[in-house]
Design a protein that fits this description.
By secondary structure, the protein is an all-alpha fold. It has 2 domains: about 5-90, Alpha-helical ferredoxin (Fumarate Reductase Iron-sulfur Protein, Chain B, domain 2); about 90-150, no CATH class. It is about 55% helix and about 0% strand. The chain is elongated, with a radius of gyration of 18 Å.
């Protein structure tokens, strides 16, 4: 079955929404069903992907839990590729995809970076400019502490 053809099997049961870790983490991502099968029906008519598809991590949990075999993560991935082709890859994604480069450049200015992460105004500015949520560093550090403690 073709990936795009699988969307017709979506019965909008919202199981994918329940299991998606990102739709619960940010209001900017309405969920895999909305940006996947539901939005793909409009994209078939030539409509461009909505920017919210860029917040899908592509983890594939939605595809795994779908009881009807809809290839939701793949549909989202293809929509994201179309979005990036039309608008270019966002700076946020370019930075996140190169942790070693960001680390090398950030090491000499680590105290400044740490101060920036503690500054509420600068975190909000980073959210507006880069699209990285202002509380992302807290969520990441909490996750790291939990993993290393267990």
């Amino acid at each position: 079955m073709l990936v795009r053809d699988s969307l017709d099997h979506c019965v909008k049961c919202t199981i994918c929404e329940s299991f998606c870790p990102y739709s619960q983490a940010t209001p900017l991502f309405p969920g895999p069903k909305y940006v996947g099968p539901q939005a793909e029906r409009f994209r078939r008519t030539g409509s461009s992907p909505d920017i919210s598809v860029d917040y899908c991590s592509g983890c594939g949990i939605c595809t795994q839990v779908c009881p009807h075999g809809v290839k939701i993560a793949e549909i989202n991935s293809q929509a994201r590729a179309q979005l990036w082709e039309e608008r270019g890859i966002p700076l946020r994604n370019q930075l996140i995809a190169r942790p070693s480069v960001v680390g090398r450049l950030g090491t000499p200015v680590a105290p400044l970076a740490n101060w920036t992460l503690r500054n509420r105004v600068l975190r909000r500015l980073g959210e507006r400019l880069l699209g990285i949520h202002r509380d992302a560093h807290r969520r990441w550090s909490r996750t790291r502490r939990t993993r290393s403690a267990g």
